[in-house]
Design a protein that fits this description.
two-stranded antiparallel sheet; three-stranded antiparallel beta sheet; alpha+beta
Amino acid sequence: MSCITTRPRLSPKVRLRFDRRTGRYLLLYPETGLDLNGTATEIARLCTGENDVEDIVQRLALIYGDVPSTIIERDVNTFLSALAARGLLQSDMASPPL
């Protein structure tokens, strides 16, 4: 299954929280958490189940205009794959075009 046809959503057991101590965002899940950099935070914020991967790439391209979209797409897919491997992501198949 290609990530480009899915609408990623953070798992119900995952919470995106701002850490006032460090000034960074964390993905919190049972027993542990991940400290996120700015780009990872932007991707995680967009994992609502409403955006497909292409939408996420396009939004990041607006923020990081000097980075080729192919690099952004690769990095988004790598991050989403890492979240999925940890069980922190759900993917709903996008509706097929009419």
